[in-house]
Amino acid sequence: MRKVLLQVHLWTGLVAAVFLLLLGVSGAIIAFENELDRSLNRKLSYVQPQSQPLTLEAITQKLLANYPGSGTKIDGFELPQRPDLSMFVGLTDASGKQIGLAVDPYSGEVLGDAAQANHFVSKVHQFHTHLLAGEVGKQIAGWSGVFLLLLSITGIVLWWRAKVFRLPRSGSGVRFNFELHNTLGLLSSVFLFVFAWTAICIHWERPIGRLAQQMSPAPAARPTAPAIPVAGTAPLSADRLVEIARNTLPDAKVVFLQMPSRPKQPASLALKFPEDRTPLGRTRMTIDAYTGRVLRVQSSREMSSPMKYAQMWNREIHTGDILNLPTRILAAFFSLMLPVLAITGPLIWWNRRRVLSRS
Fold it and tell me: Sign of the CA dihedral 162, 167, 172, 177?
């Protein structure tokens, strides 16, 4: 059995080594993707806090004045979660072109177009999830998680028999490489197992979501359809919609507001509670844009434990966001151990081949 596991460990590592190296480096970067992205786009990201931000209606009027035309409309707002951060506003101009704007929430000044931003961190994120190769890259990344799961399990089982733990010592390069691989593999095994499992759940999120639903109580009644607006009736302002959402869930912050694009469509909002560390939050709300009636609330606090894991906890664990900075540092550190293991493992195999060829 040990020989079988050794062969599984060896060939799994050789096949997946390059991909695990790349995923490890990119994973360490995106553990701090928000901070890095803001540093690369300081002019678009940061503002000088003032006593009171403008209302969304005032910002809307300023933007409509900057982009005149009968067809210009505001599509949505991504509200800043800190006083020193800018606001993101989606806008469709008179020609039908969709534009993303970074806006100072205190003055309404347009800081820049999102299309002109430095997208390095975004590219790294896409590389980590899709290898910048579309569906093929997504499948490779997903199956790399499966290989990593096998490597973490077989590595522990192979070590368990000998139970030898030595810090790498000076000496021959071959011996140092062998001990470095064993030591780092043992120290990283739990974290790599967690990375692998959560990556698998993210890749196959739809089946995992369906399984979580089956393990949860029956869902509440379907949302009520919005009323057909009376001709000539104006929709509620963005400020009023945000106010209704805050009154409905006082403990949650509104992260994103999607304005309706046609009369019968409700306004959609994304909210997050303090314990929710996902980027846009996992709480959703729809509101009738004309009557202000709340049509549906999907609160993360009311989710069953299986649904919370599938939609929130799994991602927070994978990225290290679960306990904020300390776990993100751990996630970045052990993500960087993956490239080291992906290099030292094949080197062990190569050194053994050289010895066998000489004999």
Answer: positive
- What is the DSSP code string of 179-234? HHHHHHHHHHHHHHHHHHHHHHHHHTHHHHHHHHHHTSPPPPPPPPPPPPPPTTPP
Query: 139: burial class by Cβ within 10 Å (0-12, 13-18, 19+)?
Result: middle
The CA distances from residue 87 to 54, 99, 104, 157, 336, in Å, are 11, 14, 6, 51, 33
What is the reported pTM? 0.89
Angle at 91 between CA 86 and CA 92, to 5 degrees: 165
Residue bearing tokens 């909210």: 271
> Could you tell me the two tokens for 54?
């403008």
Q: In tens digits, what is the pLDDT along the chain, a chain of 359 residues?
A: 888 988 999 999 999 999 999 999 999 999 999 999 999 999 999 999 998 999 999 999 999 999 988 789 999 999 999 999 999 999 999 899 999 999 999 999 999 999 999 999 999 999 999 999 999 999 999 999 999 999 999 988 887 766 555 666 666 788 888 888 988 998 899 999 999 999 999 999 999 999 999 999 876 556 677 777 766 678 899 999 999 999 999 999 999 999 998 878 899 999 999 999 999 999 999 999 999 999 999 999 999 999 999 999 999 999 999 999 999 999 999 999 999 999 999 999 998 888 888 76
